[in-house]
């Protein structure tokens, strides 16, 4: 009879204790698998939110990488319409959004407040990004933007303006002269970061180009890819197309741009790792107690097995096999439990708070994340082996005479 | 065959064993020399605490002496590793205990087959031999029954069948009749005598049961851990 078959019979014999131990592993495993699925969902939400904000790819002048501009549009992309068309011609591209980044002063005459501005192409911007969802009052820019501007709620409060009011924008042009234009407040946005809210201003690219007196030059092109497109290959193709079109650019990927994504991911992995470690410790402690009880209760039996000629290593294997059998049974039950709980949670419609970088919560959607299941099985088998090892070793080393006379 | 003419199966020389009790050492076996020859039917008798079980455990390689040697078919037990001692017990010895000590999760047949499985006997062969042994001890109808559903006498019969599984040269039996009524005890002793006569397997009993002593061909009396007398009928 194999060690496993004997282990299984002993588990069946000790029904209540085995059930208790399998239940511990089941809940531990299910928690592991569900947490893995939840974390996987969070990563996906975070990734989606990040891409909606920075795009899949960004096309910038080579000189702009790692350097700040000293003058407005110092590292801008000239002839942006052609560059945009070249990028948009790639089959993997869903949208190419021009952006002009600039700074200036907004004034109503009574008060002047500095702002961080961004010039956008409103219609594709509204489709591809989260911008319209951030509107707190009024509406987002439409058409080519015209004279419309959108202000952060903090900036609007500082200027004491509301949708429909006029505001004068002042900025320096690339050649260093000062220019001013009037705009109409279309809407107010809440960008969820207070410091940015106090300075944020968006306007149509036409208005910004007129203000900066630099038509056809943008700071960057933000590229959104079609679903399922190969990001790396698309970046390579677009880069080649623009470089051969005479643009001294580089194509940057969203991961390089959103450093916080990796940081948040590391944080999540840290939290997951900590929770996992706590689960493992709980399972180890419970299992060690149960296995020690099993060894103590079966001391006479161990003495008999040893007297009959069972080698100490086989006694060790028998108890380890019990630990592994509990782990496997627990993982099987845990899989069923986690699938039921995941289905119940997904059907519950619970809305989660928005992940960092996102503005809206998402309905809970615990994914079936196979890696968490595989890791969970490995963790539980390893945990039970460790928990069983020391009681099992004690069993294998027990003096036969002492074991036979154990009461 | 007389015990003087044959090479001893088990031979003890100058065996001593003490146990720690509180701060002091209590001698259980003192300077015992004893040889068991093939086919013998020996009773180790003596009052409680005389060292019968300790001596039986030492001769059966279940325990290690503080001094002296136990040689099994010429091999010094103290020079063997734990695995070698296990293998020797498995292949050459059988054990019968006062409390039967059957494995509770195994059926009667599986209990008997267990030592054969340890010895690597093929499944069909050990099944056939287990059934044959159980039939020979009168349990042909109990192959698939778990120990908890057997009577004391039946359990001891399973234990005897198990002790014979790998064709041992000697069976060590520690108070094998102590938990049995007198009629069952007699039946068990008859069975052991029959096996002893038929298969030439030596039996060594630790006992204080006069019935067992009366059926033994050789009686070794122990007192305070030392051999008081060694009489062959």
Notable traits:
heterodimer; A: 407 residues; alpha+beta; six-stranded mixed beta barrel; B: 233 residues; alpha/beta; six-stranded mixed beta sheet; four-stranded antiparallel beta sheet; 7 helices; globular; disordered N terminus
Q: Specify which chain pair forms the largest interface.
A: A-B, 24 and 30 residues
Helix content of chain B: 25-40%
- What Rg of chain B do the Cα atoms give? 17 Å
Discrete helix count of chain A: 14
Low-confidence stretches of chain B: 1-5
Largest sheet of chain B: 6 strands, mixed
Helix fraction bin of chain A: 40-55%
How would you describe this structure to a colleague?
The complex is a heterodimer of chains A (407) and B (233). In chain A, a hairpin with a 5-residue loop joins strand 6 and strand 7. The longest helix of chain A has 40 residues. In chain A, strands 2-3-8-5-7-6 form a six-stranded mixed β-barrel, surrounded by four helices. The mean pLDDT of chain A is 88. In chain A, 55% of the residues lie in helices and 18% in strands. The two termini of chain A are 27 Å apart. Chain A is an alpha+beta fold and 407 residues long. Chain A is elongated and about 100 Å long. Chain A is built from 14 helices and ten strands. Chain B starts with 9 loop residues before the first strand and ends with a strand. In chain B, strand 9 and strand 10 form a beta hairpin. Chain B is built from seven helices and ten strands. The longest helix of chain B has 18 residues. Chain B is α/β, with parallel strands linked by helices and 233 residues long. In chain B, helix 3 runs parallel beside helix 5, helix 4 crosses helix 5 and helix 5 packs parallel to helix 6. The chains are: A alpha+beta (407), B alpha/beta (233). At the A-B interface, helix 1, helix 11, helix 12 and helix 14 of A face helix 2 and helix 3 of B.
């Amino acid at each position: 009879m194999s060690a496993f078959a004997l282990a299984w019979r002993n588990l069946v014999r000790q029904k209540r204790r085995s059930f208790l131990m399998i239940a511990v592993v089941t809940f531990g495993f299910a928690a592991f698998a569900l947490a893995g699925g939840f974390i996987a969902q969070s990563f996906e939400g975070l990734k989606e939110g990040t891409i909606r904000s920075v795009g899949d790819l960004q096309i910038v002048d080579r000189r702009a990488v790692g350097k700040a501009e000293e003058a407005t549009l110092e590292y801008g992309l000239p002839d942006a319409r052609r560059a945009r068309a070249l990028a948009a011609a790639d089959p993997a591209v869903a949208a190419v959004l021009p952006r002009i980044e600039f700074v200036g002063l907004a004034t109503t005459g009574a008060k002047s407040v500095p702002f961080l501005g961004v010039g956008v192409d409103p219609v594709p911007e509204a489709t591809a990004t989260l911008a319209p969802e951030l509107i707190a009052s009024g509406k987002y820019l439409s058409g080519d933007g015209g004279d419309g501007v959108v202000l952060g709620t903090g900036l609007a409060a500082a200027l004491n303006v509301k949708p429909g009011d006029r505001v004068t924008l002042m900025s320096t042009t690339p050649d260093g002269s000062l220019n001013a234009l009037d705009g109409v407040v279309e809407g107010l946005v809440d960008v969820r970061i207070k410091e940015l809210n106090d300075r944020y201003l968006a306007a149509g690219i036409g208005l910004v180009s007129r203000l900066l007196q630099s038509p056809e030059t943008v700071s960057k092109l933000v590229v959104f890819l079609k679903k399922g497109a190969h990001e790396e290959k698309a970046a390579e193709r677009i880069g080649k197309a623009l470089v051969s079109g005479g643009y001294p650019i580089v194509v940057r990927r969203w991961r390089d741009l959103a450093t916080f994504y990796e940081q948040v991911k590391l944080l999540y992995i840290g939290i997951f790792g900590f929770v996992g470690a706590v689960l493992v410790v709980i399972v180890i402690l419970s299992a060690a107690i149960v296995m020690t009880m099993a060894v103590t209760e079966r001391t006479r039996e161990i003495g008999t097995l040893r007297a009959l000629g069972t080698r100490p290593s086989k006694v060790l294997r028998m108890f380890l096999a019990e630990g592994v059998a509990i782990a496997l049974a627990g993982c099987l039950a845990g899989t069923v439990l986690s699938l039921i709980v995941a289905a119940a949670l997904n059907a519950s419609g619970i809305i989660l708070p928005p992940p960092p970088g996102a503005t809206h919560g998402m309905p809970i959607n615990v994914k079936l994340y196979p890696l968490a299941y595989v890791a969970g099985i490995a963790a539980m088998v390893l945990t039970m082996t460790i928990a069983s090892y020391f009681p099992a070793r004690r069993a294998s080393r027990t003096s036969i005479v002492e074991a036979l006379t154990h009461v | 065959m007389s015990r003087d003419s044959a090479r001893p199966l088990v031979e003890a020389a100058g065996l001593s064993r003490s146990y720690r009790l509180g701060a002091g050492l209590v001698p259980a076996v003192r300077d015992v020399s004893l040889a068991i020859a093939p086919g013998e039917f020996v009773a180790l008798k003596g009052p409680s605490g005389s060292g019968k079980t300790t001596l039986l455990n030492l001769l059966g390689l279940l325990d290690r002496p503080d001094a002296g040697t136990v040689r099994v078919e010429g091999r010094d037990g103290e020079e063997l590793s734990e695995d070698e001692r296990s293998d020797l017990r498995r292949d050459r010895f059988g054990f019968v205990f006062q409390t039967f000590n059957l494995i509770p999760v195994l059926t009667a047949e599986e209990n008997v087959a267990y030592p054969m499985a340890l010895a690597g006997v093929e499944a069909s062969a050990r099944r056939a031999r287990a059934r044959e042994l159980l039939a020979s001890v009168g349990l042909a109808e109990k192959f698939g029954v778990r120990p908890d559903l057997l009577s004391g006498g039946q359990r001891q019969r399973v234990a005897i069948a198990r002790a014979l599984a790998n064709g041992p040269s000697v069976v060590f039996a520690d108070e094998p009749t102590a938990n049995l009524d007198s009629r069952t005890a007699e039946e068990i002793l008859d069975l052991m005598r029959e096996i002893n006569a038929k298969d030439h397997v030596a039996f060594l009993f630790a006992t204080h049961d006069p019935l067992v002593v009366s059926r033994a061909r050789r009686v070794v009396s122990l007192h305070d851990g030392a051999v008081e007398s060694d009489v062959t009928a």
